[in-house]
Write a structure and sequence with these properties.
By secondary structure, this protein is α+β, with helices and mostly antiparallel strands. 38% of the residues lie in helices and 32% in strands. Strands 1-2-3-4-5-7-6 form a seven-stranded mixed beta sheet.
């Protein structure tokens, strides 16, 4: 008969043999089985906001982040990233929308008038769902980009 101590030692040795990628894969598989509303509430628990002077970093562990700069009475969102290399399963899960809502909350708290951002034209529908409006399009960049604004 295997003792509880031996079982615990075996499990610990097994865990130590798993590399970081395997642990990540197991966590992602568990995450993918969760209902959408549970995924968002799970991620909402881990939102971190770091502020330095006029810059804000809103992140959820190493999975997603937004960077904001305060310029005058407005904010400029200069990066929204969901998922790392090879983690496209996190995209289209609502995490980006969750981060945009937190960015809006921070901007309102800091009495900003608007949030501006640049994006490629394929991302315009995503930002429009969060209330952003296209104010100009730059045909001279590759890929073509647009400037979006959210009036607060």
């Amino acid at each position: 008969m295997v003792s509880r101590y031996d079982r615990t030692r075996f499990i610990r040795s097994l865990k130590s043999k798993l590399d970081a990628q395997e642990i990540y894969d197991l966590a992602l598989a568990k995450f993918n089985k969760m209902p959408a509303k549970d995924k968002l509430s799970e991620f909402a628990k881990y939102i971190e906001v770091k502020e330095s002077k006029k810059e804000f970093k809103i992140s959820i562990k190493n999975f997603a982040s937004v960077y904001l700069d305060k310029i005058g009475g407005n904010f400029y969102l200069y990066s929204l990233v969901v998922g790392n290399k090879g983690t496209s399963a996190l995209q289209r899960s609502g995490i980006g929308t969750l981060l945009l809502a937190k960015a809006k909350e921070i901007a309102l708290h800091n009495k900003a008038h608007s949030i501006f951002l640049d994006c490629t034209i394929d991302k315009i529908p995503f930002y429009e769902k969060s209330g952003y409006k296209e104010i100009t399009r730059n045909q001279h960049t590759v890929p073509i980009s647009a400037v979006m604004q959210l009036v607060l």
